[in-house]
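Service request form, structural biology core

Requester: graduate student, group of Dr. S.
Request type: structure prediction, single chain
Budget code: on file
Notes: please return the result as structure tokens.

Sequence provided:
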Amino acid sequence: MTEDFYRIRRLPPYVIAEVNAMRAAARARGEDIIDLGMGNPDLPPPPHVIAKLAEVAAKPDAHGYSASRGIPGLRRAQAGYYQRRFGVDLDPETEVVVTLGSKEGLANLAQAITAPGDVVLAPNPSYPIHTFGFIIAGATIRSIPTTPDDRFFDSLERAVKFTVPKPSVMVIGYPSNPTADVADLAFYEKVVAFAKEHQIWVLSDLAYSEIYFDDVPTPSILQVPGAKDVAVEFTSMSKTYSMAGWRMGFAVGNKTLIAALTRVKSYLDYGAFTPIQAAACAAINGPQDIVEQNRQLYKRRRDVLVESFARAGWEIPSPRASMFCWAPLPPALAHLGSLEFSKQLLTHAQVAVAPGVGYGEEGEGFVRIAMVENEHRIRQAARNVKRYLQSMGVNSAQAQKAG
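Core staff response, request fulfilled:
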């Protein structure tokens, strides 16, 4: 009996798990680890959302099987959000499906629309499900840049010209996890035009739609006229409302893709617990002041992190959106590589970050820093980092001039 399973063979070791295991072991030893590695919000959901969860959970008839594609009220709520936020009309019956977080939705859509040998265009570096959801489904990945610029579109042209078979799916995600790159509407217009010309489906990951720091809100690809002909978009309650553990997300857009995802899900799950779906309705339809409060909080944390780490000797670019900083390794220590640097930072500075190589080979030389600790802890992390750099014989000036 073989244990060499086909899909498992296609999955490399999850390098981020190495740092996670070290972090868990350090905490088990009683060490005070400042965890800036996992993008796990430290903020609570709005009180009225928790109250709605408790209210519905108290009903005797709320504990049976739910609806795999989401209760009607939640699908209508998400359609209402898209109309208010983006001016996009969605049919909640045919263009909206509720997912168990955007990660599940992306993975199940990959299963629904991918045949072994299909070629998928996916950003590198990127959130792992953007590539491995399709790898598990049997696809071949052709990497495209994360940066939404001319280089991105040059890579698309080369992919269509030289790849056999021709790519059938393109995955994009802005604000980007991990790089925090942002895209504007003009970028999406070019993506939609390219996809239509070459008959490519587009999967847009908009999980960080509400965590932006510029005056102009992040757009949706579905704002482009005709985008629903080729695109679906995934959003999540995890970051917007600090409901990561609730596993609530959505896919919206193209009817054919939504129908395919809905059908696959009907075989795999009965949907999220009904009280959670009811509470998600309360979040979307209720007061939105928490969204702005969280946005400003992440902005303050960003400013504190960038400023305090710079004083420690580590210059980090200031992200325009998301809850992450995409930080190049200090030049004097770049030779360590992102995984070894992350391990040393955990061991000697008690600060956990995510090695960039865990997001693809183009992530080597970077680490992802999540803004999921309060400002006091971020400053403490910077002091720890400064001591670590000094212990490596690197002072603040050397850290920036080396390499």
